[in-house]
Amino acid sequence: MREIVQPGDYSYVFSRDVAPITSVLPGETVAVYTEDAFTGRIRGPEDLPSRVLDNRLNPQTGPIYVEGAEPGDTLAVRIDAIEPTRDWAVSALIPFFGGLTGTAATAMLTDPLPERIYVYDLADGMLTCGDRLRFPWQPFLGTMGTAPPLEAVSALTPHAHGGNMDVRDTCPGNTVFLPVFVPGALFFTGDAHANQGDGELCGVALEISARATLTFDLTKGRPIAWPRIESHDRLMVVGSARPMEDAARIAYRELIDWIVADYGFDRLDAYQLLTQAGSMYVGNMVDTYYSLVAGIEKSYLGGLAG
Amino acid sequence: MREIVQPGDYSYVFSRDVAPITSVLPGETVAVYTEDAFTGRIRGPEDLPSRVLDNRLNPQTGPIYVEGAEPGDTLAVRIDAIEPTRDWAVSALIPFFGGLTGTAATAMLTDPLPERIYVYDLADGMLTCGDRLRFPWQPFLGTMGTAPPLEAVSALTPHAHGGNMDVRDTCPGNTVFLPVFVPGALFFTGDAHANQGDGELCGVALEISARATLTFDLTKGRPIAWPRIESHDRLMVVGSARPMEDAARIAYRELIDWIVADYGFDRLDAYQLLTQAGSMYVGNMVDTYYSLVAGIEKSYLGGLAG
Amino acid sequence: MREIVQPGDYSYVFSRDVAPITSVLPGETVAVYTEDAFTGRIRGPEDLPSRVLDNRLNPQTGPIYVEGAEPGDTLAVRIDAIEPTRDWAVSALIPFFGGLTGTAATAMLTDPLPERIYVYDLADGMLTCGDRLRFPWQPFLGTMGTAPPLEAVSALTPHAHGGNMDVRDTCPGNTVFLPVFVPGALFFTGDAHANQGDGELCGVALEISARATLTFDLTKGRPIAWPRIESHDRLMVVGSARPMEDAARIAYRELIDWIVADYGFDRLDAYQLLTQAGSMYVGNMVDTYYSLVAGIEKSYLGGLAG
Amino acid sequence: MREIVQPGDYSYVFSRDVAPITSVLPGETVAVYTEDAFTGRIRGPEDLPSRVLDNRLNPQTGPIYVEGAEPGDTLAVRIDAIEPTRDWAVSALIPFFGGLTGTAATAMLTDPLPERIYVYDLADGMLTCGDRLRFPWQPFLGTMGTAPPLEAVSALTPHAHGGNMDVRDTCPGNTVFLPVFVPGALFFTGDAHANQGDGELCGVALEISARATLTFDLTKGRPIAWPRIESHDRLMVVGSARPMEDAARIAYRELIDWIVADYGFDRLDAYQLLTQAGSMYVGNMVDTYYSLVAGIEKSYLGGLAG
Question: Where are the alpha helices (DSSP H) in chain D?
Answer without folding.
Answer: 49-52, 244-263, 267-277
